Fold:
Amino acid sequence: MPTNLMQTEDKVFLTQISQLAKSFQDSGDSAAANKLRDLIDRAQTDEGSAYAAFVGLFSAGKSSLLNTLCGSDLKTGAVPTTAEATQVRLSDRNSNVVLLDTPGVDSTDDAHQEATEKALHLADAIVLVMDYQHVEAEENLELAQQFGEGQKRLAIVVNQIDKHLDFELPFEDFRQRVVTTLDDWGIEYDKLFFTANTDSPYNQLDSLSQWLLELAIPQVNEGTEEAQQPEDALEAHGSTQPIPARTDMLMLRVEEVVDEHVRWLFQADWQKESERVEQLAGFQLDTVADIKQEFADITRRVDENRRYLEKAAEQLHHVHDTISEKMLRSIDSAQIAPYETTGKGKAFIESMKPGFHVGWIRKEEKTRDERQTRLQRFVEDLRSKSTQFLLWPTQSELRQMLAEQKWLFTEIEDEISHMELSVTEELCSRLVEEGALVSDSYSHQYVADVASAIRAQCSRQVKRILEKVREVTEEHHTMELSGERQALERLKEIQSALADMIRLNEDMERDKEQYMSYVLSQ
Ligand SMILES: Nc1nc2c(ncn2[C@@H]2O[C@H](COP(=O)(O)OP(=O)(O)O)[C@@H](O)[C@H]2O)c(=O)[nH]1
Ligand SMILES: [Mg+2]
Structure:
């Protein structure tokens, strides 16, 4: 169709695509630039038609099939022909489609491989031809998987169906087996056809022909194929202008090339990041969806792990605080000066009062002796009561509480055994407040002061021991959890590497969008 029939807005697009090609060329990506130029050629020479590439393993019958469909004269048979993709045309009254014969994707010849690859960017649809006998061959199924993941519509053709022998297997069973295999492999395709270049009751050549011709007719929202619809493709790039339908297929092809170019730009970075993930995690992630899934999983595990460690530390502190509180309360409430002990203390204080005298001769000496005797009696009694009612119960309670937690380590046990209360004459004399002696109620106060001084000694030692317990248990705890902590660090590293990949992918998407909105801008 002559170029002058193109609408003005189409020409604007072509100019923009051509500028994009130049910019791809300038950045060194001549492969993508050439593909865009091919697409411009396509738009100028074959406006309105669709392209379908026939691909498949060597000898599947691609060329024969095209000859049967189009009445063409492509070379068939054992010798692989030229390394070029050949175009033939299929048309009827309403439509015309360009079909590309490719040399075969399994070709050992790199030139053939390249020719096939080079033809694909022009194609709106892929027809994957498999020979009847090799439908379940891994090579074929992998190809189907690969094309199924792409943006182009995919028809799977089981060719040479004339080889089917009904007495071996009813055809319907065979058909069902093919469908099941394709499903099992998770292959997404548009249509499945069975064909032959000779007569066969199962030949669907006409349906294939129909499907191909319909490729050229713009489709409007047709359920499942919506993603392929031009409206969506364009809306995705924020264009509000309605685009003529025949330009839409062209835009989808341009988008594929842009996608390739962006991948090319980011190739080195992407490679580096995915190698880092592989190194850290020990596995490879192929798709962005997999990366996002893995990132979500890892993030969940990081959170779990972190919460576990925090909880373990909290638990440890909680137990420490509880033991410490209980111990100090017990010490505070220990009754170390029962009635007769208090009586001895009071007697001592009485003897300290200024007017206290004993005897008539050698009065001073006797008074001093009496005071000393009363002090000794008080101290001895108090020492024995402190040991019995404070030291021993404290030691035993502490041992028990620590044992419950399995914290009664040898060095701690030693410290507990070495606890002692220093109840001495020196202490009891020192605590006498000379100025208060005149007061009648002082003696009571004095005994209370002494008792609390002894309790304070006990508390100090318990605190010191518990401090040591804290150190030792934290050390044990850290050692016990070091595996967990290392695992957490490793997970966090993988997490950040995956986050980098996701960011990189976002950068790529953004670049792609910018290129496309440039093409679509008026
Ligand atoms: N029985 C049978 N043989 C076929 C059919 N189509 C192609 N062949 C044979 O398979 C061989 C390879 O065919 P060709 O079209 O060159 O395969 P290509 O390499 O995929 O292009 C040729 O010898 C064909 O004659 C068919 O439908 N039935
Ligand atoms: Mg061929």
Residues 1-5, 220-244 have pLDDT under 50 and may be disordered.
